[in-house]
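Cross-posted from the bioinformatics board.
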Amino acid sequence: MHTLTLSELAKKLRAKEFSVTELTKSLLARIEASQPTLNSFITVTAESALAQAKAAESTLASGSAGPLTGLPLAHKDIFCTKDVRTSCGSKMLDNFVSPYDATVVEKLKAAGMVTLGKTNMDEFAMGSSNETSFYGPVKNPWDLKLVPGGSSGGSAAAVAARIAPVATATDTGGSIRQPASLCGVTGIKPTYGRVSRYGMIAFASSLDQGGVISQSAEDAAMVLGAMSGFDPRDSTSVDTPVPNYVESLNAPLAGLKIGLIKEFFEKGLDASVEKLIREALKVYEKLGAKLVEVKLPALPLSVPTYYVVAPAECSSNLARFDGVRYGYRAKDPKDLMDLYKRSRGEGFGAEVKRRIMTGTYVLSAGYYDAYYLKAQRVRQLINQDFKRAFAEVDVLMGPTAPDVAFGIGAKASDPIQMYLNDIYTIGANLAGVPAMSIPCGFVRDLPVGLQIAGPHFAEAKLLNVAHAYQKETDWHRRIPAVFKGELSR
Amino acid sequence: MSLNRDQINSIAHLARLSLTEAEIPVYQDSLSKIVDLVGELDAAQTAGIEPMAHPLPGLAQRMRPDVVTEKDQHEQYQRNAPQVEAALYLVPKVIE
Amino acid sequence: MSAWETVIGLEIHAQLSTKSKIFSGSPTAYGSAPNSQASLVDLAYPGVLPVLNGEAVRMAVKFGLAVDASVATRSVFARKNYFYPDLPKGYQISQYELPIVGKGHMDIVLDDGTKKRVGITRAHLEEDAGKSLHEGLPRQSGIDLNRAGTPLIEIVSEPDMRSAKEAVAYLKKVHTLVRYLEICDGNMQEGSFRCDANVSVRKVGAGLGIRAEIKNINSFRYVEKAINYEVARQIDVIEGGGKVVQETRLWDPDKGETRSMRSKEEANDYRYFPDPDLLPVEIDAAYIASVKATLPELPDQKAARFAAQFGLSEYDAGVLTSSKELAAYYEEVAKLLAGGKEPSKEQAKLAANWVAGSLAAALNEHNLEITGSRIGAARLAGMLGRIADNTISGKIAKDVFEAMWAEDKDADAIIESKGLKQITDTGAIETAIEEVMAKNPGQLADYRSGKDKLFGFFVGQVMKATAGKANPAQLNELLKKKLAG
């Protein structure tokens, strides 16, 4: 069962080849078996999953089921889940049981999906390797000595190891796409405002987006459709209708204009990775697409822009964690200042503190114009670049990450090295455009991801383009050897 | 380094983060490197360019009607509170 | 040596009387059980987001239009970042560079009748913080977040005021205005109308001095005292060779002094930046026009109309229009007194004297608003009618008024039961005068030999003899004649 995609599972459940409960039990067993090595979950909600499974079975039996009824999923532990611990990968929220469901969680629950648990992640979504989690690093299922990418490392690893068929995730600077690339799975970050941020613990408000990590574009289409839509509780949520992403999956590609970002194929890209990207592009040419070189001259400034804007916003978003109303509180504070400083100093990990301080610095008196305002202007330039590019081409393609998965601990001591992992993904967050990563081959037996980006609200087009590739290739069906068969405890 | 000890201490104070003596040089080093990284923005030509606060331009704030939609759920909400008495959140005394 | 000049600017925080909070759907009612009106958004739970209450915007625009200010078609919410237990998010959502209301002005009238225009720099929307309670908790404070998220409009004046009295006049005017507009209930005790004063001194002709900000002034009386104290303090400091420190000071009403706030060791760096969870607020000309159409007759307009229509002095008109309700009460009394027709000048003046005089005094004494008056417009008009038709004198009317305040009886019933009808019969008055003259030959002789002051003595005696009911005007005329001999 675990080798089946979501859409295959859906068919077989309806054909009664197995029940929702059987499927759920088998996945829960795989999760349990994998935890000591993979560590992709923070909380497993076995009891409620089985209760939800039972309820789904009734719905299926009654004939009123929807396309997602009974399908299991995992939620990145950044989404608030009612009456279930929501830790955001942090000691600060280790004891936090959310009193409410995020909109995304509500929607997928209403669609009848079964929640297996909450996946591990970089603390407060800050990281590209899932090494900053309070709950320990997640391992890459393709090589357990390597990182899965981050911050949605748990979601990517769980799907890659086929211990959850699909998982929600979030992307602020590449946190869906980069781990999807490093784990050989499919991940999509939709347009800013497409998916509600209500209940999605905020890191950088103008960059954060909720999305999906899945085995295929088809699976992503199923879940993204149910996750998306206007939410009156999120002022940045956009009120445009959600198309049926599944229906447009098979639209023909002929005439598709693919833009190759000149700046992305310059220095920094591993030669073997580049080779695979170009092979993937050839597949598209065979399908009738045309390749066009485009220039986005401001794009190389993405990383410095991001490392002003994101820390600035996060330094403010994380000010609410003060030990007063919920979360970690330092023992025996001697006064208010001590309560604040030690609750936060002890509750947050190093990377989070680094970013809070960076953000505090760039917003502080005398520096606001030079850093924050300047970065927002460069952001405008990057936006203009994307707009101009999309006037010439339908989609942009290129590498998702500059290299394959690296060793746990290899980059942990140099934050700048770590930040450069996001060099190809950050631009899409700054411009708010949708982007995805799909597996396109292996280098040294490790997965490589092809990134596809489109103009605002072009999710249907992206999924269609990705699906076309996945009909021609089978990279997305590969499963790491360790996780291919049954797992023993 | 771009930032000195005093700056690190004052930033940590503004952000209400306790730093041990050993941590100060570590953060001084990494923060200075980050400041160098973002210094690359200086070279960008941005004269006449408007700052972009939201990625989707041209959108305006939606306004909701003036209706009460919340009820008293403080018991549920205070289950997560570290210290509560008589429904008040307790903190060390605040001196005005 | 040149004289000292005081420079004062006021920052007023008025709570907008919306039903729900500015960024959440919690109720805004005052005085509820602690934290019973604090939703997940108000508590700054992880993952929650603000959504703007349109009514708060409308009220702010209303205010801007009423003070002739520019209303921004595009305004932006910004985060003001600082840590304090009553500020759950660790930042306050406010407006910084692009406020919803720009430059305007407020015209005030001082006690001596002079007029002054006080500039308003800007007014912006923001959210209120919660409250810290210190009673009953030895080393701790208890935080109540019911108030957190209540909409505020912060009104910043230009530093145009030059005395505590001017500041009070401005404050009262703004207070009246926000209640006229029905955007704020102006309850200073409950904290829905608060004021901070920025005070500095300088020698006449010199540049601006260093200013101190005074907080915690929650009554008109305290505003005057606090400012006067602070001015004297600053002059003392400077004349003693020192420099005024730019700081925030707290007014202590018990000690009657301002003192430096201990907790503010350093100036806060608020790190303002546009709130990324909120989009720019955009309103168009049609919206502004629709709000303008809902403006009531404003205090100045009403006062001007009262002066013209009822022939009242500017001062009287001002007093009677200090609240919409009081003005309505007055108009009703005047109209009833005139039997439904347009009141004459005398009728208008009579009504004005009593509404602004005895009635206002009684309301004050019993700490009531006009809406709580124990004498309704009809009963008062009834009594005034009896003054107008000479049934009772103005002096006797005071007794009738007191009786009406104590009991729900009409003036006529009281006059009847207490036998308070005026004596207007010339003969009766003359008789009383003759009796008094006869009883006081010494004073009569003194008066006739030039001690004019004794006139008052005779008036008093006749009044006593007639139990106060002699018509004063007639008494005066007849007494003069009789005393002359």
